[in-house]
Amino acid sequence: MHRFLRLSILLISLFAASSFAADATQAVKMTEDSLGPLVEQPIEFPHFRHAGDVNKEHPEKGGMQIDCMYCHTFARRSAVAGIPPLQKCIGCHQSIESVRETPRIKKLFEYWEGSKDGKIAAKSPIPWKKVHDLPDFVRFNHERHIKRFVFQQNRPVQEACGYCHGDVKTMTVARRSKTLSMGFCVDCHKKDHLVSAEGGTAIGNQAYWYGFKKPVVNASAPLTAKGPNDCWQCHK
Amino acid sequence: MSVSNLLENWAEFRHTHPVDDVPHDPYKWAMSIDLDACTGCNACSVACYAENNLPVVGKEKFLHGQSMHWMRIERYWDEDGRDFPDQGAQFLPMMCQQCEAAPCETVCPVGATNHTPDGLNSQIYNRCVGSRYCSANCPFKVRYFNWYDYPTTDNVWPAEMSQQLNPDVTVRGKGVMEKCTFCVQRLTSAKNTAKNEGRIVHDGEVQTACQQACPPGAISFGNLVDADSKVFKQWKAQHVEIAEFEQAKDRGEQDNKLRGYRILEELRSYPSVMYLERVRETAV
Amino acid sequence: MIAGNAISDRAKDFPKNFAKGFVMMDSSFDRRDFLKVLGWGGATVALTGCGFTSVEDGKETVVSYVEATDFMVPSIGVYYNSTCAQCDAGCSINGRVREGRVLKLEGNPASAINRGKLCGLGQAGVQHHYNPDRVREPLLRNGEKGEAITWEKAYALIAEKLQGVSGEEIAFLTGAMSGHTKVLLENYLASFGCKNHFAYEAIAPGVVRAANKKAYGVAMPRFNISKAKLVLSFGADFLGSWVSPVHFSQQYGQFRKGADGQRGVLVQVESKMTLTGANADRWLVVRPGTEGILALGLVNALGTASGDVAAAVKDYDRARVSKDTGVSVEQIDKLVALLKSHSPSLVLAGSAAEGYAHGSQNAAAINLLNQVLGNVGKTVVGPVSVPFPQMSPVVGNTAALANVSDALDAGKYKVMFSCGVNPVFSAPTAMKFQEHFAKVGFKVAFAHYLDETALQADLVLPLDSALEDWGTSVPEYMAGDDAQINIQQPLMERLHANTRGFGDILLALLKQRNPESYKNYTDYYAYLRGAVLQNKNALGGSGADDDEFWDASLSNGIFKLAGSVANLSGSISAGSLSLPNAPVADAQYPLHLIPSVNANLRDGRNANQPWLQESPDPLTTIVWDSWVEIHPKKAAELGIVEGDIVEVAGKNGSIKAQAYLFPGIHPDAISVPLGRGHEAMGRYAKGFGVNPFHILDAVFDKETGELAMHETRVKVSKTGQRVIVVKDEGAAGGKQMGKKIAVRLNTDHVDLSKEV
């Protein structure tokens, strides 16, 4: 009897909890700017030197305004932006004598030429740590976003990348500066960046199915949907 | 979702087919399987394991009915008491039928399984809480539940084997339901390519893993909205309408020399898979 | 979580993409280097410790390319063509490679054999490659254990053991072989003057090859299933495991649709239903061993033969044939009528017909039927031969095993090599192979896994997987109008640093013998590339740049050459045909044992691939275990129900397995599938099921000396134990419960003409 009671209490409280969740119309807001952990990388890569703005007074402190996609070249043609191949780093740095003997560049060349103590073999990949990690069940496509913002709308690359990655050009080692949670994605897709639906239907609101209510089809209204509208667009 | 809404609209919902008023556009993925060509060889099933990161559960769990084959071959014998099955066996590849009015969707307490605009029945692992109502309500019994955390179970994916896992497909953990997705990762990718080129996906551009492997080519897959697609032509030739729960030939309005049918159509779940009946020679 | 875990794009138009990528590659940078520069070498992040919801910034390592070419984009699959090595059919595969790992195999559409299709066995090729139980180091026997040694030491040891040994005292046992490895192997053996190369395949159409050679003049003609209006198959499981099943299945799909709208009819004659039998329009169950009698009965009933053929079949009237085979007169009449109306037809002799002491006679009778029907030249056509005879296949058979076993018994060999075969597992105990094998002074096994044979060896040399190795092969069954040489190329870098390709090992051994001739070849890759470029003109690359031709060849995965088509002999002769009478009942061992060949497990070499273990047998739906198929009537007679553990006992031992009541078998026969029952070979193979190879009687076909696999007689008794059969029949026990689930129509109720 006791046991039975306990079970029903549990069930009731579960039900209460779920109905509470269902009633809450406002999703819990996460702060848009929440910093990820400081990540220790094998080489402390100075993003600000590469991508940062030119400092006319102290050129050695400023950046070189290199386009993000010069190194993260895969972003425009693949789902993942990718880490540049080691070859790319070496390609420039073998002809930049001025910094050749700095500690970080010496480290870099160890991965290319092999370290003197033999711990790093020649041409081994640098074991970078992941800074922006998404769960396995999320499908995010860099290509689509770059195509839209940079190539269709001609927005500055650093701005477009910055929507999710923050102001990387001011950072040394990159640090996650947005939550990259589902709320973060949806917020943006709802508010600022309307996506026009390609098809001719407004079936988009999947709530139609879920709520058993047919959407009011307004033939004269422009066919726009706010971002991807089926779960499989972003989940896998 | 509210209970009152459900009660009020239930009858209407069950009897009205979604595509009546909201047609799919530009995609409605559908399949047709020719049972006369199907040999029951299981190539499709193994291909599905390879593509979709299905765990091999082992003998004991298989015995408990916990196998995870999204695509399975059902085998039937004639039940007429002959000594020998001298007209062979009947094989039926069975996977999620991607019903238009899917019984699984309506019972999910958390909305983890939904309908997509291109006519698929999606399963969202991170939303699933494992109530298994969907599986209970599925007439085809094609939903599979993760009773165990297979990624950490011994010998399911030992270190070397985990390198084979397809990164485009989630590796499911314990407590979630899964099922055939019509290889949605391939569809997404094909749609992305098409979008880059400003067009829709052509027929034949995307194949499901089972279709690609099938040695006798029994499986066709494609876009039912596209009148040039093979699947569209096959459905049309067989006079099988997706929005009907009883086809013209069943009502006697067509000659019955057609082979197309959908399984358990009378339940009004409007499956997206059409089967073509097996044929046997009369003269021998 | 896997590195680069976001969703990828698939390179859909792979051949174009691939070729493009290839041409753009720096030409100093060949395919082998390409694999090196990936820089992945096993650095991929393991799955362990990463739940599917985890987000761990800063913890996971993301591995990048060291050097990348233009077509290498993370998350986008690149496809490489190679050749499937799971069986000998020679299907071309197309492997999807992403971030340095091979993920999935598809069929290569350009191959005339499989035309883009791939069977379950082929799909599981990745599990051969990633198998956790692969041998990783050369192992030297030390008592009961194997000690890891270096390759230098292994080679030195082989040289030492071969010191002072003559060519006659060395034997090399392999499976079927072709291509450049075969050339190297023959060169190696020739360097000793050794003629003892034995090609053994536990399941091979050895008798049928000999019968074909007699009837048609070639061992393996082409069978045009898609062009036949009727296929009459005597136990040839061409949809499951016979000769080139993916090719035949692909043809079968067309055959059912019909070349000119007339749907092809399939009739299967056998004692135990195979997958092909299960797809037949009519499955005719015959008494085991009487296939030839039925064939001659049909020749007689057709009434078109004359001369010595008519004389040879005159005794086979319908009444007698019906009595001997158990097929009703009415059914014979129907079949004859169908054979007359459906021309051209195609008659196939398969493993069920050849597996008897009179197997050659059976096969000859069946081929005679084909000739009498006038199918030769229409549905049985000449094969195309490759213009490089030195590369053409050495086909395997069981006669080779008998020969080698006898020679071993006589103590002829001091050093023996084995590669790609597992005779300790697949030889009948009655042949005492293991005992004879033990007499060899030094046994070297080339192995992927520690299988039963490798465990007997003194030195085990670990081989690269088929997806890591280089090679070429020539299929025995040449399906297309062009001759085809298949290329095998690595789909990824070596998984384990210390495995070696078979070609590389042979080359190293050849260098021991003949350093001068091979000094220019640093490795097998160099040899292969050299050999291909040397014959560039003949291989269709006349005038092409070497590098470009090589790259294009690898990109295609196949060399297609115009070969000469063999003419089939036109003479019809009953020759020395003399079929024995129908077998008499054996009081002590009343049942025929039919060892059945499952499409996935075959002779058991792939039994350690878990997808195959868990893939249900199509007919019984049983997984992970062996079973004894027994007709329900017979079972009732013996009081056996499903799941009873029964003992199957013959003259040469017994096995115990679960009983499965199976309607598709002759009541005087039982059937146990081959392939399971391993005592070694790793976690997925060891301890699952029983091995019927071991209880086979050592009876051989009288003409060819092939093992007569179906000649074993047994008795079945209950042990009193019972288990639940682990099978996949579904909740309703494989019943349709009156619903329209899997439905069948008769041809007079269907109109196929309007179908798409």
List the keywords.
heterotrimer, A: 236 residues, mainly alpha, two-stranded antiparallel ribbon, 10 helices, 3 strands, C: 756 residues, alpha/beta, N-terminal domain of TfIIb, Rossmann fold, Dimethylsulfoxide Reductase, domain 2, 4 domains, 7-stranded mixed sheet, 6-stranded mixed beta barrel, 25 helices, 30 strands, globular
> Uncertain runs of chain B with pLDDT below 50, 5 residues or more?
11-17
The string of secondary-structure elements of chain B, in order, is HHEHHEEHEEHEHEHHEHEEE
CATH architecture descriptor text of chain B: 2-Layer Sandwich
The biggest chain-chain interface is: B-C, 103 and 120 residues
Quick one: how many beta strands of chain A?
Answer: 3
Strand content of chain A: under 5%
Write a structural description.
- The complex is a heterotrimer of chains A (236), B (284) and C (756).
- In chain A, 38% of the residues lie in helices and 3% in strands.
- By secondary structure, chain A is mostly helical.
- Chain A has a domain at 47-83 and 128-198 and 222-234.
- The relative contact order of chain A is 0.13.
- By secondary structure, chain B is α+β, with helices and mostly antiparallel strands.
- Chain B has ten helices and eleven strands.
- Chain B has helices spanning 3-15, 18-21, 43-52, 59-63, 103-107, 133-137, 159-162, 184-196, 209-213, 230-237, and strands at 29-34, 72-76, 90-94, 113-115, 121-123, 144-145, 177-178, 219-223, 260-261, 273-276, 278-280.
- A four-stranded mixed beta sheet of chain B has the order 8-1-10-9. A two-stranded antiparallel ribbon of chain B has the order 2-3.
- Chain B is globular and about 55 Å long.
- Chain C is an alpha/beta fold.
- Chain C has four domains: 9-129, ADC-like domains (N-terminal domain of TfIIb); 139-202 and 388-562, Rossmann fold, CATH 3.40.50.740; 208-383, Dimethylsulfoxide Reductase, domain 2 (3-Layer(aba) Sandwich), CATH 3.40.228.10; 591-722, Beta Barrel (Barwin-like endoglucanases), CATH 2.40.40.20.
- Chain C is 28% helix and 19% strand.
- Chain C has 25 helices and 30 strands.
- A seven-stranded mixed beta sheet of chain C has the order 7-6-19-18-17-8-9, sandwiched between helices.
- Mean pLDDT of chain C is 89; it is low at 1-30 and 34-54.
- β11 of chain B pairs parallel with β30 (744-746) of chain C, so a sheet runs across the interface.
